[in-house]
Amino acid sequence: MTDPILVGLDGSPPSRRAVRWAAAEAALRGSPLRILTAFVSPIQLYSVIPRSQLPDLAVLQHDARDRLTEQADAVRAEFPDVSVHADLVEQEPAKALVEGSAEASLTVVGQRGRGALAGMLLGSVSDRVATYASGTVVVVPDEPAAGGPVVVGTDGSAASQRAVAVAFEEADRRRTELVAVRAWLASGLDGPNRVALVLDVDEMAEQERRLLEESLAEGRSKHPDVPVRPVLGYGSPVAQLGEQAEGARLLVVGSRGRGGFTGMLLGSTSRSLLYRARCPVAVVRP
Description:
By secondary structure, the protein is of the alpha/beta class. The chain folds into 2 domains: 5-140, Rossmann fold; 150-284, Rossmann fold. Helix content is 43%, strand content 19%. The chain has 10 helices and 10 strands. It has helices spanning 13-29, 42-45, 57-78, 93-101, 124-132, 158-174, 194-198, 201-222, 237-244, 268-276, and strands at 5-8, 33-39, 84-90, 106-110, 137-140, 150-153, 178-184, 228-234, 250-254, 281-284. Strand 1, helix 1 (13-29) and strand 2 form a beta-alpha-beta unit. The longest helix has 22 residues, at 57-78. It is elongated and about 70 Å long.
């Protein structure tokens, strides 16, 4: 049996959009969909408040079940071929999703949920799931879906090579263009060795271009029908990928790149893009 796509639902608009995105992805893949709502007992949330003033647990469960049933029914109506399973668990949401990701082909969360502060672009649950979940995690913003290309960042790291493979699969599945971005910087270009380095910039750029093409070779051979547009950009990876991802239908990044510290689960580039991207972001592990 195919592993399901797992999506978290807390009733917030971003989480409902995440459910809709996950359902469409399940239809594309022919995968079952598991919608998970997790909540914490009021006693755990408000340990310093007298029991008489705590929200009623039965009411919370009833409301959560209603939201879950409503979303599951909406998915079944829009995507009748998708097998939908809805689960309500009493557990901390991030922990429930991280544990559930071990048995999922993909884990999907909204960019921020009901508990996020106003103006916060990435909620704590989304951040923790993107950091600790098994496999690929997609963070869906509270933005209308765009119909542009799939965009992927590549820097030669193991995680980015896996991200390129996933991006080719997603572009092929969606029958759309793949934009592959490699960002580079010539360190010291503005320092005391500026003159010597300037003489080598063209050669350095050509080397970066060759590395970009090499990173795409295997994907091109496996997915010959996917149109590919390589982009070599001078500047920070966050700026270059953010620019190319405007209007994209999906941005794919490795969990951490060449600059990540040993043991780091989510690199600074990936985390920054989760905060700023206006399209769904897939974080891929090696």
